[in-house]
Amino acid sequence: MNPNESLPRETVSQTQVVRRTAVAFLIFILLVVGVWKTFSWIKNGPKESGAAKPLRAALNANEKIFSKLFDTARLVKEYPVSAAVKKVRVNGMEGLRDTVGIANWHLNVVRGNGDTIRVTLDDIKALPKRDIVFDFKCIEGWSQVTHWAGVPLKTFLDHYGLQGEEHFQYMGLQTPDKKYYVGIDMPSALHPQTLLCYEMNDAPLPLNQGFPLRLIIPVKYGIKHLKRIGTMFFSNDKPADYWAERGYDYYAGH
Fold first, then answer.
1. Sign of CA dihedral 116, 250, 157, 179
2. DSSP classification of residue 67
3. pLDDT tens per residue across span 20-63
4. Which of 16, 113, 117, 167 could be a cystine partner for 109, CB 3.0 to 4.6 Å?
5. Distance CA 55, CA 249 (A)
């Protein structure tokens, strides 16, 4: 074949153009309707733990994967104190509406057998102190390098003879007014960077940051860093979790 000869061209009539355009448009409309119906089905369908069932199933599947990959020896990156912000952002006031004084605050630790230990802030401050400067991540999409200090949760549990409770699958935490509460998987609770925190930027916690005691758990998003801890307990069933009940991820790891 002579390379200079042109290949035969397909002749497309106006009728064919219209037909093909109509078919493409119909396919587009069907896709839009399908997406809309799927979205409506998910949004208005049956819910499980505050989220649509398909979404909760996906979140639960993610939790199984990430929990199996979790390694307590893997540490979150830490920064020098100079990198920490001075104005720390407040990520919610749930459970902090009522003021509480140091004189009438204590931490209730409910053992696995139902017995309760009452611990004061001075008791906690008497334990070995640890500082951490890390990138605090909020599930809303923002983050800040922040400086905190307190006692490692693992140190606290061991000091009070709670090694048996460490074998439970979960730890539950509640504010004194019971209006905010979280469930933490035990491997994350026992991570060496998880703190019962009583200081921010070398000063006592402000009221809006959980005075007198809060959780700092760098392997989780901010929704798990419960402020103003009033009660701690242990369970093999998932404890109630404020934001999970509202459709968020229960595991909330990153």
1. negative
2. H
3. 888 787 888 878 777 666 565 555 655 655 666 776 677 677 77
4. 117
5. 9
